[in-house]
């Protein structure tokens, strides 16, 4: 990879340790500055991304990164963990308070690790598990043959209705009765609507299955009171701490006290070794931020922005799945504008609009997946969402030259620096 070897300017800011890094290893420091510039001069519409606060970044870059802390607070396999214990207890207490959960495990290194731990706590290899099929928006950990989940368990996929795009509840019920799964997983990488957790609980109870909610995407909205919580319904809730929640990259597991010990053992020592204490400290910071009124306002604005963006994309001619969104996430088929998903993504990338392709249920081609968490963190509102929809559709239709659109994108994002100095 090559990056421009500009000398970092005052505009680049410091982000704490970058100064020391710049003096010792200018080559790598320049890579970090280049990434920072990329993030602040292009439009971040990836539904799983966000801008963490400088406080979260400070915790990530702190000396807790040096600490080995296998085990749990008060029961570690290493010495010198008394400060690490305080950090982890803070993170656990804040997660429990934030989500009203009896137990929280904040050690999973990622969302996938959290799901792995949930399966390890509840299942045996070969057990049948019902989950949203991958072509309909299931995650790799929901039964992909390329992933441990598909290799070790017998996954049965449910889907979304071809007309409405909504989860096919009749199919969930019928498959559950026919296949008697040991666990049912609800949650998705691309479902723009609220999951009906009460419905899934009812079906799980009817067939004697555990209910696992993989709430990686909506958990930040849940924290801010902008989406329903799976905690009262699911036996285990898995989540990421990045995405809308705006913490460091990582995972967590929430459950009732009766499963606490099984979940803890499933994380360590069953699936992980030493906890990453700097990340756990950063999770504590993010949970603290998420408990504030400012975060609730942000979470509601994320949804308001997504609704406006979805409506304007539809008005521009894209086929928006389910006709809109309840969350931060939108999926859409750009084909009505004369371009398939993959071509659309690269054309938009040339214009500085960064987003993902995704599977479109009941379609051959891939669509576009976009989200409003990062742009909302930057301070953009509904006016900017209308401008984004116009720019995006113009590029896809070929009305706007991507290079010219790139200047419009730069002008827009420059008004909303993610890390103002
Ligand atoms: C529903 C769901 N589960 C699990 C994950 C995995 O998270 P990670 O990439 O941190 O392993 C994701 C990530 O996008 C997700 O959306």
TrEMBL record:
It catalyses: (6R)-5,10-methylene-5,6,7,8-tetrahydrofolate + glycine + H2O = (6S)-5,6,7,8-tetrahydrofolate + L-serine. Its EC number is 2.1.2.1. Signal peptide: none annotated. One of its GO terms (molecular function) is glycine hydroxymethyltransferase activity. Gene3D superfamilies: Aspartate Aminotransferase, domain 1, Type I PLP-dependent aspartate aminotransferase-like (Major domain). This is Serine hydroxymethyltransferase. The keyword Transmembrane helix does not apply. Keywords: Amino-acid biosynthesis, Cytoplasm, One-carbon metabolism, Pyridoxal phosphate, Transferase. Catalyzes the reversible interconversion of serine and glycine with tetrahydrofolate (THF) serving as the one-carbon carrier. This reaction serves as the major source of one-carbon groups required for the biosynthesis of purines, thymidylate, methionine, and other important biomolecules. Also exhibits THF-independent aldolase activity toward beta-hydroxyamino acids, producing glycine and aldehydes, via a retro-aldol mechanism. The lineage of its organism: Bacteria, Bacillati, Actinomycetota, Actinomycetes, Kitasatosporales. (6S)-5,6,7,8-tetrahydrofolate binds at residues 134, 138-140, 258. The keyword Transferase applies. Pathway: Amino-acid biosynthesis; glycine biosynthesis; glycine from L-serine: step 1/1; One-carbon metabolism; tetrahydrofolate interconversion.
């Amino acid at each position: 990879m090559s990056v421009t070897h500009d000398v970092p300017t005052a505009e680049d800011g410091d982000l704490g340790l970058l100064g020391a890094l710049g003096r010792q290893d200018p080559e790598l420091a320049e890579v970090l500055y280049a990434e920072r510039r990329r993030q602040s001069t292009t439009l971040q519409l990836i539904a799983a991304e966000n801008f963490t606060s400088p406080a979260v970044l400070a915790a990530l870059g702190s000396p807790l990164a040096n600490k080995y802390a296998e085990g749990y607070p008060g029961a570690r396999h290493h010495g010198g963990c008394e400060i690490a214990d305080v950090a982890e207890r803070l993170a656990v207490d804040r997660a429990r308070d934030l989500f009203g959960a009896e137990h929280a495990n904040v050690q999973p290194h990622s969302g996938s690790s959290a799901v792995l731990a949930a399966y390890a706590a509840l299942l045996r290899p070969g057990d049948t598990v019902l989950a949203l099929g991958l072509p309909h928006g299931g995650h790799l950990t929901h039964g992909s043959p390329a992933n441990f989940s598909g290799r070790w368990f017998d996954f049965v996929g449910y889907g979304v209705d071809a007309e409405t795009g909504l989860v096919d509840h009749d199919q969930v019920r019928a498959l559950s009765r026919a296949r008697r799964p040991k666990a049912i997983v609800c949650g998705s990488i691309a479902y723009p609507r609220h999951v009906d957790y009460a419905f899934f609980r009812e079906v799980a109870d009817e067939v004697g299955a555990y209910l696992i909610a993989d709430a990686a995407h909506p958990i930040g909205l849940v924290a801010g009171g902008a989406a329903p919580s799976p905690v009262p319904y699911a036996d285990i809730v898995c989540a990421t701490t990045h995405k809308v929640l705006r913490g460091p990259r990582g995972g967590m597991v929430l459950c009732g006290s009766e499963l606490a010990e099984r979940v803890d053992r499933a994380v360590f020592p069953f699936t992980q070794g030493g906890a990453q204490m700097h990340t756990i400290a950063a999770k504590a910071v993010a949970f603290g931020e998420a408990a504030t009124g400012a975060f609730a306002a942000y979470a509601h604005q994320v949804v308001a922005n997504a609704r406006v963006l979805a409506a304007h994309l539809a008005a521009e001619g894209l086929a928006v799945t389910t006709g809109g969104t309840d969350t931060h996430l939108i999926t859409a088929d750009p084909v009505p504008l004369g371009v398939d998903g993959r071509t659309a993504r690269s054309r938009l990338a040339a214009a500085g609009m960064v987003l993902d392709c995704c599977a479109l249920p009941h379609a051959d081609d891939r669509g576009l997946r976009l989200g409003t968490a990062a742009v909302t963190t930057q301070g953009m509102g509904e006016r900017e969402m209308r401008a984004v929809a116009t720019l995006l559709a113009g590029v896809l239709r070929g009305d706007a030259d991507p290079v010219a659109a790139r200047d419009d994108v730069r002008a827009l994002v420059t008004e909303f620096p993610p890390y103002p100095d």
